[in-house]
Specification:
three-stranded antiparallel beta sheet; alpha+beta; 1 helix; 20% helix; 3 strands
Length: 82
């Protein structure tokens, strides 16, 4: 960037503070560990008893280690008219 603003520098400072506080985080990889990256996903279409909204989610693994996940309920309900 040719002309960073104060908000850019604030974002950089926030990122650096986060990285400083997470230096002990990481993956424990041992000899013979699998380096496979795989994901699992699932969805429940209109399964909520209360509002009939759909729920879906995913998990991402690096070997045996869970590295990312997300679960989300739909924000809108779709109705079909026959």
């Amino acid at each position: 960037m040719h002309a960073p603003t104060d908000s850019h520098w604030a974002a950089v400072k926030r990122i650096l503070c986060y990285l400083k506080g997470t230096t002990s985080y990481g993956f424990h990889i041992t000899r013979g560990s699998s380096f496979a990256l795989h994901g699992v996903t699932d969805a429940d279409w209109a399964g909520s008893i209360d509002d009939h909204k759909s729920t879906g989610g995913y998990l991402v693994f690096f070997g045996q280690t869970l590295i990312s996940w997300n679960i989300r309920q739909a924000t809108h309900m779709c109705s079909l008219l026959y």
